[in-house]
Amino acid sequence: MREDQIFGLVAMVALLLWLSSRMMPEEHRRTFERIAFLLIGGGIALALFFTMLHFTR
User: Fold this and answer.
1) Could you read off the pLDDT of 8-40 as tens digits, one per residue?
2) How far is it, in rounded angstroms, from Cα 49 to Cα 7?
3) Residue 3, pLDDT above cutoff 80
4) DSSP string, 15-50
């Protein structure tokens, strides 16, 4: 898998979790939203890492 495909996969999973959290009971909703935001943050960190790796070669 290429880097852009990995980032797209992470973003898609996070979006699905975030959208599905609207259908969950209140006690699970915040957990799903937090997981989605952590995935987005991790995807951004991964993209920054690959960018730095690309420009340092």
Assistant:
1) 888 888 888 888 888 888 888 888 888 888 988
2) 12
3) no
4) HHHHHHGGGS-HHHHHHHHHHHHHHHHHHHHHHHHH
pLDDT of residue 42: 87
Residue 39 · residue 13 · CB < 8 Å? yes
CA atoms within 13 A on the CB side of 34: 5
Give the Cα separation of 3 and 50 in Å (integer): 7
Structure tokens at 51: 């960018």
Contact 26, 1 (CB under 8 A): no
Classified as helix, coil or strand, 52 is helix
